[in-house]
Amino acid sequence: MKGLIGIAAAAAFCIHLPGAFAAEVEVTWLDPTCGYFVVELPPSDEPEKFGLFSARGLPLPNVGDRVSGSMTEVETQLENLTSGASHNVIHWADAKLQEQLVRNTPVQCASKWKNRKKR
Length: 119
Known about the structure:
The chain is 21% helix and 35% strand. By secondary structure, the protein is an alpha+beta fold.
């Protein structure tokens, strides 16, 4: 019986665990042609300082918007504290530099090509 209570308590804790990692962050880069955007992650011991997300629909956040939500889940919902909108998103990757994430966005993201030199 004690074992079942322990398992139930652990399961209840894990269900609420993702909310413990919610953070308020700022959108630092956006490509509206493909719906990908980068946020500056909250300070931590991890070397990664930026996160790459893609919106699963409209509206898109704007550069400078403050959003709040889980920065650890793959599929999550971010609340836009600036506009009041909700964004269903996919968290693709984290990196030390924003440029690393922008460089690895899909080919259909037009702004990734904006600063490239023509050869």
